[in-house]
Amino acid sequence: MKILISADMEGATGVTWPADVLPGTPQWERCRGMFTSDVNAAVLGFHDGGADRVVINEAHWTMRNLLLERLDARAEMLTGRHKTLSMVEGVQRGDVDGIAFVGYHTGAGTEGVLAHTYLANSITGVWVNGVRASEGLLNAHVVAEYGVPVILVTGDDLTCIDAAGYAPDAVTVAVKDHVSRYAAVCRTPARTAADIRAAAKEATALAVRHEPVLGGPFSVELEFDAEHLSMAATVVPGVERCGERRVAYTSETMYEGIRAFKAVTTVVSAAVEEQYG
């Protein structure tokens, strides 16, 4: 049994504000340890449940945040950027039985600690076939096309509620309770590690590959906080403006859809000016 962990940082234990997740800051350096603790707890729990192999795909920012030297010796980690499927890289290889979203968060324009979708700012909303989408929902559509179930989700309490919409059978763990975008009531690392380990052990029973779910076509719509960003996004083939600050495109599969999404966010981030956005 092989489990893939997609590890994001905004939903990790103790993380509540931008400096906690911005590479190079003292707070990021401190929070890396708690992030690693969450991920390692999942590794331990999956092995407790009978997994033979657990691979971690780093999914936050530079994708170089976890402390490899603190992980269980049985773990393997894919670190670094520029991967075909970004946050869920590795699921396409055909040997993954279940995936865990560890350290996840809610989507742009919604309540939640450090809520966003791909870009920290600029995007104010994402919809897939009319349903408001977090990174969790986007990635769940991707992995479904490879027959891989989402079996575990960790993050703040609102992230767990969000997960019920795209992975209703998954085991969830709230490591903190949302107060505002930059504040939360946090559990200690010792407590969250124990909770995540127990949940991962339970979730291992859900790691059963199924037939691929081809749910397309997918209509994806993005809303930005400035008009010029919607104009900039149309440089990506197939992306058209559907409002002053909105663009939309349609993909037959979410494999194509998430790659187009990455292209749009890359172009948009390059179009943001430091002072005026």
What is shown here, in short?
This protein is α/β, with parallel strands linked by helices and 277 residues long.
Question: Would you write up a description of this structure?
Answer:
The chain is α/β, with parallel strands linked by helices and 277 residues long. Helices cover 30% and strands 24% of the residues. It is built from 6 helices and 12 strands. The protein has helices at 26-48, 135-144, 157-166, 189-203, 227-233, 254-270; strands spanning 2-7, 53-58, 76-78, 98-102, 123-128, 131-132, 150-156, 171-180, 183-186, 218-224, 240-243, 246-251. The chain has a 7-stranded mixed beta sheet with strand order 3-2-1-4-7-8-9, sandwiched between helices. Strands 6-5-10-12-11 form a 5-stranded antiparallel beta sheet. A hairpin with a 2-residue loop joins β5 and β6 (131-132). α2 (135-144) packs parallel to α3 (157-166) and α5 crosses α6. The radius of gyration is 18 Å and the shape is globular. The relative contact order is 0.16. The mean pLDDT is 98.
List the helices and strands and how they pair.
Blueprint: E1 2-7, H1 26-48, E2 53-58, E3 76-78, E4 98-102, E5 123-128, E6 131-132, H2 135-144, E7 150-156, H3 157-166, E8 171-180, E9 183-186, H4 189-203, E10 218-224, H5 227-233, E11 240-243, E12 246-251, H6 254-270
Parallel strand pairs: 1-2, 1-4, 2-3, 4-7, 7-8
Antiparallel strand pairs: 5-6, 5-10, 8-9, 10-12, 11-12
